[in-house]
């Protein structure tokens, strides 16, 4: 369970993090002293503000906030229903901390933005989704006790899982359903919480809205680029000597952020998180921190996550661990997630082991892209494909079967402690009669070859498949299959 919020740093003028150095956490009095007063806005006024700010969602997808707001307003009028405002502060991705920082240190900015939206929509309720890791919830509750919100405001706790942070999964959880994405794609602006038109956006998005409401669109745009005004919150971890949540001006050189966080020599950087893309060290030298700037070098801003990899770890091994984790985080309700992602994880494992070419990874990724009930298969495929492209030379070394000579240090921010007792399957060929029972027990890891004999990667069994591997060992009639400590 996550408990310690990382340090906060700023490159340029602070906005979301204003007052942090003086106050630490901003209670209501400190918040009003630092940011000043704020008043309600009518729908047309708030729409003009959001459009003038060019405000886009900060949860990863980057969808224009004004379009969401307009869609909810039109849906309320068309259906003659009240609206609900939902703040997604779940931050289900283990590598992200920016929303947790806002919850713990600037909760009133989030509440200001939600209150602005609720007033403009004449909403019945505000619902704030937080993770059950305990980080930020108490601070948010204290903030709600310090002030008066325009409508009933409730906090809903959801499991701290990767897919629980997906918008549809959050709406499901609020409605008392399983905390997984819905099986079919539908717009929350038409039917969300309790079947009502729902404005759903990320915690940072509401905080940016509150900053923009005080500054106005023109002063807000004094920082940033013409296409992406304002500031950006980033979570910098991995090989950084000083991991931190950093607020920086949009369009700033990525190199400035890396220097601030004391990032050493690197092999590559994951931009945007586990559903993001890798970029090369050379690309990092020229990249700008913006959606457009990062896209120009093959990266993505995503949810503002930056994970540099030092030269002392195996990059493909690190990537394989993430793909396994993402496969285990599947909702398991559609084919691409339930079967395709384990296939992809297995293909990456085999490529790292040098027993299959990269084309197998590309084929497995192609099987899931664009076919899922949510964006999880697409994001996982994007991550895997990006890894084999950026680390092509490393992949060539692995293809010889000898590997790159570096151990996997586990620096990607995955939940839980590293596996202290890695185990792998071994097969006594003198005993195996090709019954095939093991492949039926754990098909995600063991397959039958053309002759009907079991085939599996020589890499350690992923922890999320360990139980299945044990069952496979137990059902082997010839006692040919064994689970041994991986060297």
Round the Cα radius of gyration to an integer and report it. Answer: 24 Å
Q: Strand order within the widest sheet?
A: 1-7-6-10-8-9
Give the overall form: globular
* Nearest-integer average pLDDT: 89
Bin the helical content: 40-55%
Number of strands: 14
Indicate the proportion of strand residues. Answer: 5-15%
Characterize the biggest β-sheet. 6 strands, mixed
End-to-end distance: 29 Å
Low-confidence segments, given as residue ranges, are none
> Which structural class fits the helix and strand makeup?
alpha/beta
User: How many DSSP H or I helices?
Assistant: 19
Family: Belongs to the complex I 51 kDa subunit family.
Organism: Micromonospora zamorensis
Keywords: 4Fe-4S, Flavoprotein, FMN, Iron, Iron-sulfur, Metal-binding
Pfam family, one: NADH_4Fe-4S
Description:
With 487 residues, this protein is α/β, with parallel strands linked by helices. The chain has 19 helices and 14 strands. The protein has helices at residues 20-23, 28-35, 43-53, 65-79, 98-105, 107-121, 137-146, 167-174, 203-220, 254-260, 281-286, 291-295, 315-328, 335-353, 358-368, 376-390, 392-399, 437-441, 466-475; strands at 8-11, 84-89, 125-131, 152-158, 198-202, 231-236, 244-249, 266-271, 277-279, 305-310, 423-427, 447-448, 454-455, 481-485. The strands form 4 sheets. A 6-stranded mixed β-sheet has the order 1-7-6-10-8-9, with helices on both faces. Strands 4-3-2-5 form a 4-stranded parallel β-sheet, with helices on both faces. β8 and β9 (277-279) form a beta hairpin. α13 packs antiparallel against α14 and α13 runs antiparallel to α16 (376-390). The chain is globular and about 80 Å long. The protein starts with 7 loop residues before the first strand and ends with a strand. The mean pLDDT is 89.
